Each structure stands twice: as structure tokens, then as C-alpha cells.
Amino acid sequence: MKILLVENDIHLAEVIKVGLVEEGYAVDAVYDGNDGEMYLENNNYDLLILDILALNKDGVHVCKSIRNKGVNTPVLMLTVPNKVGVKVTRSDLGADDYIVKPFTLSELLERVQSLLEPKRLEDTPKLIAGDLKIDKVSRDVFYKNEPIKLTNKQFSILEYFIRHPDKVISREILKNYAWDYDYAEKSNTVDVFILRLRHKIDNYGCSIRTEIGKGYRLEINSVN
After folding, report:
1. What b/e string do you get for 122-155 counting C-beta neighbours within 10 Å, with b at 16 or more?
2. pLDDT, tens digit (0-9, with 9 covering 90-100), for 201-214
């Protein structure tokens, strides 16, 4: 899952980004609403986290702008306490949900998970590739009844492959899906993670094959 964070407090943005990345999300973080809109024009995101006080163009205006363009990506707004005692509603903000500063990271993660859950479960909570099964809710992976331990990032990559069996997936698509912009710029990022994932799942009902000059393909092995 990929998230765009627009937050004008650089320290808070870094804390949020690190917390989300540790949970397995790919995160692009910017501090300016105009930059946020630029990122949205060039990337696909599963969730937007917008600061109501974002620089140059605040979160409310960014949200209204993208909605007018037909972008229906869920929006979590980061707001400040209302000093005049007027209750703020989601409809006032144009967002799907909001959280008032200051908040704990655990509170934020709960809101993020709640907004992303419908997308994660849009078809079925479990995916199957041969004898390999993954549970999108618990993020557990099994070969028959044998558990396979994966990192959050490895799980995200495997989930993407299983959703696209026998399809060649380019390095660029994998980078855009599983990593934030800055990290994905490292030239061998995808290759390193694919190698590590191969060591864990090859001979467990699936293999990741390299298609030279094109990318990678998940091959479902025959079940004996």
C-alpha cells in the first residue's frame, strides 16, 4: 500500500513516515500542498494524509481540488483543535476521516488501517498461488500448513505478484508500488528485495523468474 503524506511540520512528518514504513507502507512525504498535488498527478496512492495547515495550499483546498478532478482516494486530514468551539465534521473538511493534533502514532495507525481495510479486503482476505497461501489481514504466509516468515515489505511484494500471476512485472512498477520515491531511486533496491524473497519462497509452490530486460514473473509450480 502506498501513502502520500503532506505535513508542514518536518519533524512530525518524519515521525509519521518512519512509523508507517515500519508497518510495511510505502510513503512519500512532502511539506507543501502544491507539491502534494504534483505528486498526485504523477503517482497512484492508496491513501492521502493531508495537514490542514500545509504550506502554500492547505489540506482542505488540496482535498477539494482533487475531488473536483474525480480523484476518490481516501483522505485522512490532520487538523488542529478548534478554538472557537465549533465542531468540525468530515464533510466540512471534504475528507473521509480526520484526527486532531496532538495524536499518538498508534491512533494514527488505527485510522490509516481503518481507511485502507476496504481496499485490502476488496475481493477476499486470502490469496492462493499453488500451495502458497497469504492472509491479507494477519499478513501471514503459509506453504500448506508451514508458516513462512516475511518482512512487511516482502509481504507487500509477494501480494502484488500473487495478484498478477504469470504477468511480467517491471522493476518500475514494483518500485512505485512498494517504495517511497526517495528510496526507490536506489538502482538495485528491487533486485535486492527480490533476491531475498526468492530465498524464502522458491521451492514452496512458487518461483520468481527473471525476464531479462523486462522484469520479474511469479511462476506457479506444478503441485505433485
Report:
1. eeeeebebbbbbbebeeeebbbeeeebebeebbb
2. 877 778 888 998 88
* All structural domains of the chain with their residue ranges: 2-120, 126-220
b/e map 188-202, b = 16+ CB within 10 Å: ebbeebbeebbebbe
**Which CATH entry fits the domain spanning 126-220: 3.90.550.10, 3.40.47.10, 1.10.10.10, 3.20.20.70?**
1.10.10.10
User: What HEC string does 140-199 produce?
Assistant: EEEECCEECCCCHHHHHHHHHHHHCCCCCECHHHHHHHHCCHHHHCCCCHHHHHHHHHHH
The model's pTM is 0.61
Topology adopted by domain 2-120: Rossmann fold (3.40.50)
